[in-house]
Amino acid sequence: MHRTKPELIEGDRRALQAWFDNPSKDDEAMLVAELDGTPAGCAFLVTLVDYFNERPHAHLSVLAVAKAAEGKGVGSALLDACEQWARSRGSDRLTLSALVTNARARSLYERRGFGGEYIRYVLPL
After folding, report:
1. Closest Cα to residue 63, out of 50, 79, 47?
2. What is the pLDDT of residue 2?
3. CATH numbers and ranges of domains, the chain
4. What is the pLDDT of residues 2-52, one digit of tens each?
5. 115: pLDDT confidence band, cut at 50, 70 and 90?
6. For 27-49, b where at least 16 C-beta lie within 10 A, e where not — what string?
7. Pairing mode, strands 94-96 and 28-35
8. Which of 8, 32, 86, 112 could form a disulfide with 94 if both were Cys (CB 3.0 to 4.6 A apart)?
9. Do the Cβ atoms of 98 and 105 come closer than 8 Å?
10. Whole-model pTM?
């Protein structure tokens, strides 16, 4: 019923590849965090239009932290930078999606002030 790890990786790979193929889009951003001069994580942001109010807003599409950098504040630093990017573009919100099975990520997001808005239900066919 839940997405498989390879399926998730492939979705992120496609999104990131599309950005690398055309990195000059004004409504997207790639942020990279470093620890001691070494890449430690990245955040890929896009601009979406809200379904309910039809206003554009920032959406964190991909947040990844290197295994060696976990627990060192890289995810929080990237979230700070994402929030700053969203505010600089006039967004009234920053959204993201998290798998219900990813308790560690959900805990980070909730500590940072993110709250659930709705739950997407899936019926495998």
Report:
1. 79
2. 80
3. 28-111 (3.40.630.30)
4. 888 899 889 999 999 999 998 888 899 999 999 999 999 999 999 999 999
5. very high
6. ebbebebeeeeeebbbbbbbbee
7. unpaired
8. 86
9. yes
10. 0.90
